[in-house]
Amino acid sequence: MSVPRAIRQVFLAIEQSEGAGARVRRSIGGRQLRSLTPFLMLDHFSSSGAAGFPDHPHRGQETITYLISGGFDHEDFNGNKGTLSPGDLQFMTAGRGIMHSEMPHAGKLNTGLQLWVDLPQSLKMCEPRYRDLRAAEIPVAKADDDKVSVKVISGESYGVESVRDLAYTPVWLLDVSIKPGGRILQSLPKGWNSFAYMLSGTATFGSGESSQVVDQFHNVVFEQEGDFVEASVAEDAKEEARFIIVSGQPLDQKVVQYGPFVMNTQEEVYQAMLDFQTASNGFENMRGWESEIGKRSPY
């Protein structure tokens, strides 16, 4: 018999400054929820004009960037370049080291999500890589007489599977929209850590006495036990609700993080800082490198 997942925690993601003039709502990686293995950080970002994330390093994690509106350019010290349009995603594995820049298109309101996923210890020093997923490639599942629509970015929903795995650490990522009167029962892998982040509208998670009404910009963290999560939107709601459901396989390892460096021991973090400062052991290409798109920033 299937068992619903109970709600562990619900909280508002407070807006804060990040990068060069950008604003983010950090619902994982902040004071309210430091981490939820394998997830290290979730930022709901907003930027306009030249505000963005100019040249900066990473080591030891993967980042998943999901653009909701506007446009974002990417450039790194290995010569990789790309552009995200609304609905597109980029999966980046930092591995042993990457230096890159992420900058918005001027004159637009650029909004999206960036999720940091921890890498297993055996892959911390792997070679960097990228995988893009375009909006047109993402399959969509429908349910409850089309009152429920799910973009299956990674994972499975109502018999619809994602096109491919895009991260080393197994992760499900579902973009859910529910019209007034709609209801979703979303199965999730057993034992994985899972949460839902509200992008817009209001939804009720759970049912009966244990249900909670959740508003925009709130994160809903579920217990590990259980088979599915339930969410619905009231029949008389003035708008549909939109949220992402994210689930990931826990990693049984220590997390030691210093800013963009995420390793398993303090010594490994010290080494990452030294390698970055000396442009060695994965950071060689940063010598004399400066991104073109990073020059847009006046900060």
TrEMBL record:
Residues 22-117 form the Pirin N-terminal domain. Gene3D superfamilies: Jelly Rolls. Binds 1 Fe cation per subunit. Keywords: Iron, Metal-binding. Its cofactor is Fe cation. InterPro entries: Pirin (IPR012093), Pirin_C_dom (IPR008778), Pirin_N_dom (IPR003829), RmlC-like_jellyroll (IPR014710), RmlC_Cupin_sf (IPR011051). Coiled coil: none annotated. Residues 174-281 form the Pirin C-terminal domain. GO terms for molecular function: metal ion binding. Belongs to the pirin family. This is Pirin-like protein. It comes from Penicillium chermesinum. The lineage of its organism: Eukaryota, Fungi, Dikarya, Ascomycota, Pezizomycotina.
